[in-house]
Design goal:
This protein is an alpha/beta fold. It contains ten helices and ten strands. The protein binds adenosine-5'-diphosphate and magnesium ion (MG).
Length: 262
């Protein structure tokens, strides 16, 4: 079998007194759509940070796209850091929340073009072919009709689509999405998940979809990992992992929680 494109082995990450990951091992195969679910604070974003080469490993190792990261090695040498910068060019990242300050006067097309600057070079102008690629991406995320609209005037769901297009403009091999559905209404949420599934297939990506709501992973993920307190509580196809027992173990019994509070 082929090597996994992402491989975490016994990864421990902590922020001062908080331990965010307590020994996480996880292999992700090329082309896979992997869901990462769990309650707030369970370590989801920290996993994305590690894959993206920005996590400081306290223990264990991470292998991403053939680049190896080990505990205690980051920040030690220029050569190592430039290798990781190379790796990071192949990873598209859609952070949680607003992508661009809504007061910054850029329109939708320009916001997506920002994603191409790593390829174009910061001090050169985009060529006609770069704009064509951006317009193709706007079609893909169904935003062509709003391409001239100021970014700050978009709804949450529309901003999310632009954020996805911007990450794709970099032409990544791995796409990291941090809570792309949080705060969206039901309809926009279904639309975003459909778009994610479509770009994953069309672009032949490996995708990591982080969500606090495991329901999001049900129809579109090949596998899902359920996190609890920085540890993997369950891992496998959504149909198996999202059992009532597993969800109760990870999220607690919501019914009894509400009755306890009242
Ligand atoms: P999730 O994305 O699942 O909500 P995170 O990976 O962001 O979880 O966080 C895991 C744990 O690490 C939490 O306890 C959180 O408070 C802590 N943490 C995350 N980022 C930081 C940070 N920058 N500084 C201190 N603690 C942090
Ligand atoms: Mg998070």
């Amino acid at each position: 079998m082929a090597e996994p494109i992402v491989s975490l082995k016994d990864v421990v990450v902590s922020y001062r007194e908080d331990i965010a990951l307590r020994g996480v091992s996880l292999n992700i195969n090329e082309g896979e759509m992997m869901g990462i679910a769990g309650p707030n604070g369970s370590g989801k974003t920290t996993i994305l940070t590690v894959v993206n080469g920005l996590g400081r490993l306290e223990y264990g190792e991470a292998n991403v796209l053939g680049y190896q990261m080990k505990a205690g090695r980051r920040g030690r040498s220029f050569r190592l850091n430039s290798r990781i910068a190379q790796m990071r060019k192949m990873i598209g990242y859609v952070p949680q929340g607003a992508l661009i300050d809504p007061r910054v006067p850029v329109n939708v097309r320009e916001a997506v073009m920002i994603g191409r600057y790593g390829l174009i070079g910061l001090f050169r102008y985009p060529a006609k072919t770069d704009w064509e690629k951006v317009d193709r991406l706007l079609e893909m995320v169904d935003m062509s009709h709003l391409s001239d609209r100021p970014f700050g005037h978009l709804s949450g769901g529309e901003q999310e689509r632009v954020a996805i297009a911007r990450a794709l403009a970099q032409e990544p091999r791995i796409l990291l999405l941090d809570e792309p559905t949080t705060g969206l209404d039901w309809r926009s949420r279904v639309e975003i998940l459909n778009i994610i599934e479509q770009v994953h297939k069309e672009r032949k990506l490996t995708t990591l979809l982080v969500t606090h709501d495991p329901q999001d992973t049900f129809n579109i993920c090949d596998r899902v990992v359920l996190l609890k307190n920085g540890l993997i509580a369950a891992l496998g196809p959504p149909k198996e992992v999202l059992s009532e027992g597993n969800l109760k173990a990870v999220y607690g019994d919501r019914q009894s929680e509400t009755s306890r509070r009242s």
